[in-house]
Each structure stands twice: as C-alpha cells, then as structure tokens.
Design brief:
Layout: H1 4-12, H2 21-37, E1 41-47, E2 50-56, E3 62-70, E4 84-86, E5 89-91, H3 95-111, E6 118-123, H4 131-138, E7 142-149, E8 155-160, E9 162-171, E10 175-176, H5 186-196, E11 214-222, E12 228-229, E13 232-241, H6 247-258, E14 261-268, E15 271-272, H7 278-290, E16 296-300, E17 315-319, E18 323-324, E19 332-334, H8 337-352
Helix pairs in contact: 1-3, 3-8
Amino acid sequence: MMKTIALIQKLMSFRSVTADYSEVNRCSDFVAAYLRKNKVSVEVVQVDGRRIVYAATHAGRTSDVLLNTHLDVVSAPASLFRPVVKGKRLIGRGASDCKGTAAVVMNLLIRLNGKVKMGAFFSVDEEEGGRLTQVMVEKGFTGRFVLVLDGDMNRLTLAQKGILCVKVHAAGRACHSAAPWRGGNAIDKLMAAREKLKVCFPIRVTEKNNWHDTCAVTLIEGGTVRNMVPAMASMTLNIRFTEKSRVDILLRKIRKATGCRVEKLFVTPFVSVSEKDPTIRRFYHAMRRNLSPKVVLSRMNGATDARYFVKSTRSIAITGLSGGGAHSTQEWLDLNSVPIFEDFLYHYLLSDSPKDDQ
C-alpha cells in the first residue's frame, strides 16, 4: 500500500479532465488495479465510454456507509498536473477537488477490508453535472449513510441548493442593420427580458445573506452577421434554488415576467438533511470530538453528487479535507489534514458507523 500523500500525487499526475474520456479511464484503471492488488473487491461499470470504479470491503452494492468522491477535474495548464509541495501545502490540479479525498478513500478500503461494511465509488463526471453518479445510484450502489467527500474538514454540510437551468428565447424580425426601424431586434428584447427577470429574484443576496434563490446569465447567443438585425436571441440562466421553492412556480414566474419562450434544460434536486437525524448527529459529534470543537454545520450554494442520493437514503452529509483554490491555478491541499482526516474516518468507520443491526 502506498503512503496516502504519495498516492495523491500519483492521482494528480493523470490529466483526467472530464471531457477527456481516455485519460479519465486511465485514472479509473489505475484506481481499480491498485485496489485489486491490495485484495479489495472491485466492480467497474462502463457507461457511455467512461469507466466508474466501485469498491467495497464486502460483497454486494449496498453498504452501511458509502463514500463518494470523484476522479475528474477541470482543465488546467500542463504544469498543474505536476504537483508541487510548498511548505505544508500540495499545489496542483485536483489537490483539493478531489484527488486528495480519492486517495484517502482508496487506502481506507484497504485498511478496513473485511472489518466493516463499507463501499465507495469514484465518479468521473462530477465537474460536468455528475450524471454518472445518478446512473450508479439507479443501479443500486448506495449506503445507509452516504458521505460525499467534496467539502471541507471544518464543516459538515447538510444542505445544498438545487439547480434549474433554462434557456430564454426572444423572437424579433430580421432586417438590414442600416434600417433597424424596419425590423425588431431580438437582442434588444432579450436584454429587456433580462431586466424584467429581477422581479423573480427580488432579494439582494450578500456573502452573509445568501440562502435565497439566485439567477445568473451564463450564456448569450444572438446574431449571425454584423450587418443584420437578428430575428432570434437567447440566454441561458443558471438558477440555484432552496428547499422553499418549486420548479414549476419558478418557471411560471420567469415566463410571465419575460414574455418569452422558456425552455427547461435540466433540473437537479436540492439536498436538505435534518441535523436531528441520529446518524448525522453521531457523525457530527464524532467530528467535533476527534477533529475540532470548531467544526460547524453548514449549507452550500454549490452542488456536489449528494443530490443524486436523496431518493436512496435519508442520511447524507458532505465534508472533506482542508484546502482551497478549487479550479484556480493555485489549487491547494493542506497536507497536515490528510493523516488526521484519514485516521478519523478509519476509527469512525471501525467503531461508530451505522451497522445493519442498528
């Protein structure tokens, strides 16, 4: 068995950018071979040309505890796939998101093999929405307690916003740009629609007051040549919604406010887990007792693969190693957090985790 930090560096050397199926599969193949070499049961599921590794300390697809992490990363310069240690930080692509936790999970599977009923799978498309995690859950890979290791060691996250992605289409009438009064500019209509959207999201969101629905324009399309007034224009909206909102009502409000055709692209559910859940409460107290009394319960505006487990189990939480700078050129992992977090999970899984007879 490799030392965990060396294993992290090995995983980071794979340029497993989500869209690069070949390199993602190379990384998955390494994970599968490493675990098999160390006598861990492995099942590789191939979906649409990509390989997802499921590994367990027992037979079957349902565990007392399922750990979820991912091997894919966002794109980066080649230099970031050569990890560098600076003081107590490991810097490079995937350090904190999420090659660090992947290595921790791999070595935990080896250390706990045959001792507990633990499973794990290593997603390969989390950075593009995590659809393959949904496929894995639908195939029966789940746990009584699902721990998504895509967060921070100082937090136990129990809620994340849902995502509604829509495209708003504005229609006009094309004409030559030298005589714009003869047509109707679809881009002008689209910009007016953008202003009207503000009535759907009236609360001023700040860093300290952010648990509200938000809407961001992420793509704008319109026009084909520089001397023609366009007949069509569209904008893509990325909406993050809380447990207080309903998708059908949001869509109705957007259509009414803009007066445009609104196309629903996709929806992913919000996650909201009660802090009174017995499994969550035990794990939270274990974190505060063994990691730090400053560990807090939190909610997140971003999204993880936790959203795909809401129908298969009620006990879901998000945490991870300490690090920062995800998706940036200064992505880093706190090396001190690696043995601390791994040993904490080892003892929790060995002694405190939920069992079949509970």
